[in-house]
Amino acid sequence: MTVYQATTSAPVNIACIKYWGKRDTKLILPTNSSLSVTLDQDHLRSTTTSRADPSFKKDRLWLNGEEEEIKEGGRLATCIKEMRGLRRQLEDQDASLPKISGYPVHISSRNNFPTAAGLASSASGFAALVASLAALYQLPTDASRLSLIARQGSGSACRSLFGGFVAWQMGEKADGSDSYAVQVAPREHWPDIHALICVVSDDKKGTSSTSGMQRTVETSTLLQHRIKHVVPERMQKISEAILARDFDTFARITMQDSNQFHAVALDTDPPIFYMNDVSRSIIALIVEYNRVAVANGGKLKAAYTYDAGPNAVIYAPKENIKEIVELIVKYFPQAEAFKDPFGLFGTQGVKGRVVEGFNEAVAKPFSVGAVKGLIHTRVGDGPRTLGAEEALLAEDGLPKKL
Amino acid sequence: MTVYQATTSAPVNIACIKYWGKRDTKLILPTNSSLSVTLDQDHLRSTTTSRADPSFKKDRLWLNGEEEEIKEGGRLATCIKEMRGLRRQLEDQDASLPKISGYPVHISSRNNFPTAAGLASSASGFAALVASLAALYQLPTDASRLSLIARQGSGSACRSLFGGFVAWQMGEKADGSDSYAVQVAPREHWPDIHALICVVSDDKKGTSSTSGMQRTVETSTLLQHRIKHVVPERMQKISEAILARDFDTFARITMQDSNQFHAVALDTDPPIFYMNDVSRSIIALIVEYNRVAVANGGKLKAAYTYDAGPNAVIYAPKENIKEIVELIVKYFPQAEAFKDPFGLFGTQGVKGRVVEGFNEAVAKPFSVGAVKGLIHTRVGDGPRTLGAEEALLAEDGLPKKL
């Protein structure tokens, strides 16, 4: 008997132009366009197996081995329903196709990074879900078309359906049919963009991005100006910078837009803070690192960006990552040795040091644990279809024990 | 022989609508109007003695006993020159007046609060300087007229020439002649407004407000919107709230404008941070304290505001101050007993506790020293002319030894 099953993985993406605010909370239509870099699935990914089987009683989903309820009308149910609808259209057009759209599905999904890392897993998770259902249902794979559906699971998930540099065009229509992701450039266009994720310790439970962004829409008097007059120009300029591989402009806009996102969060009533003193110190280090570079006649060498949490993501050309790791470790000593996936440090390991001319007084050293870990990765590709040996469902249709 | 000398004190003021940005850096003309509460000189003040004497060799000034250079064309020189010019006009009109405008002056000024408290002393300092010269020169005392001159010493000093609730009208003219302070209401109108200053420890030297605000003017894409579209309406509404003694509206606008000032500082390139994790936690405490009040059918009970530093100033009706001190001390234990100038606590002292229904998880307790001290004060009066016994210059024209 045929097993209808597919396994895919999807990447994390970190925005340079931030998504913050919905004009339609049900369809997840944003108040502004956004742009992100897709990170390499070799390091960070969500993997999802979907199986359709007439013997299943109902649709079920497991996340990291724990079953999640698929609430009627909820985001998971919406994505599954939309994908099933596309399958049904195919079946209606081609009578030779097996009628698997009528079967219940079992879905098992895992992230290869710990939740404690504070990395948003909803983007890679919903992208992997949609990609895996697209493979299961053998849908013609137009990533922009799929991004319309992933968007309804989690807004930023739509950008994880592409590799490289990805724009989410906000669109104008009330039904959301023009609010989807497009690829600005594939990773092969600019593979030199690397990323260092600084996982920052935080005691406080922050405001969720879903509730936080709507409070900003309702109460910030600055957000409307950002939406109408700042983001459109930045989208244009950063896209041009990516096409021209102009890191200086890319970095400048990325940092400005991270700051502005946190500024409108602070302009919210009551105010929302995602960055803490550790985040602020990392900003001070990167500002000083860039200042030295520019003072020596060069250009910007790194760009920080912060999502809705205290973690820093530092984008930089590969050649600068070694200096940046040394810099961060100097101020934020690590409990564990740096995992060096690109072999930058050989056998010597990281010493912790600053570049010549660096003003060490811009921040004070923290104790071990303030930055819990460092992850070195780079721009990556879009969702991958994996072989049966990587499936997360066992023969019985339940999640494999790991 | 007649001694021409006068001693005055002037108050600190803390803005509710923040001044941030100059359209003319020499004349100190702001990009937006601002509004502040003058604090009681019984607790915080600058005191200045000015003497004019033909035996003096040149103008000299001492601040807290240390001589400061009066740089030609600098802010001190400008204020002294302008005041002397007003005196000369009087002398020209009335030949019976002694010609003291031609004498050099010696000026001694002291703040009764330590510099380490992190309270901006330039506002009270320049207000006391101008008020003391006005008394020395026996100028007709129109505080708005004097505020034009104090403004050229330090922008916010113009607001310290009035007691109560004070607006600095930005004006439009290029010569600055319509950029002065006016009193919205005297302290007697609403004497119930008290203030608790939380002096926050900070390791980092922050960006000076003079350089910081101009970087914001040059690089923030949000500041122009604030200036044109947000501040004018807030100035109108908070003035109405003061006249109506409407603390709820007063508090709401005060907190929103503090947040927006820090938001445009963050939208600056590179970003400027004045608040730290302690500041953020105090905000969380006041937000929760207000939430409980509103949940119980009441109105806002306190308003935080932050200037260009990590210190919190909490405005509240007098009846709430006891609860607020208990709340702050619960999370920020104090090394020294609370100085209780209004006798709120009797002999029991402060225990540190929260009001009923307060969610204690909104912040975590800090260790002793995170908040270095608490100062309880209230809305106060304008500059005071003091008796000769309070003079800060000795007979020899040099600062008295304290």
Automatic annotation (TrEMBL), chains A, B:
The UniProt keywords, alphabetically, are: ATP-binding, Lipid biosynthesis, Lipid metabolism, Lyase, Nucleotide-binding, Steroid biosynthesis, Steroid metabolism, Sterol biosynthesis, Sterol metabolism
GO MF, one annotated term: diphosphomevalonate decarboxylase activity
What Enzyme Commission number(s) does the record list for this chain?
4.1.1.33
Any idea where the Diphosphomevalonate decarboxylase-like N-terminal domain is? Answer: 10-181
Annotated GO biological processes are:
isopentenyl diphosphate biosynthetic process, mevalonate pathway; sterol biosynthetic process
Catalytic reaction annotation = (R)-5-diphosphomevalonate + ATP = isopentenyl diphosphate + ADP + phosphate + CO2
**One cellular-component annotation, GO:** cytosol
Pfam families, per this entry?
A: MDD_C, MVD-like_N
**Pathway listed:** Isoprenoid biosynthesis; isopentenyl diphosphate biosynthesis via mevalonate pathway; isopentenyl diphosphate from (R)-mevalonate: step 3/3
Domain named Mvd1 C-terminal: residues: 195-385
This protein's source sits in the domain of life called Eukaryota
NCBIfam families with a match to the protein in the record? mevDPdecarb
The record's family statement is: Belongs to the diphosphomevalonate decarboxylase family.
What is the name of this protein?
Answer: Diphosphomevalonate decarboxylase
User: From which source organism is this entry?
Assistant: Trametes cubensis
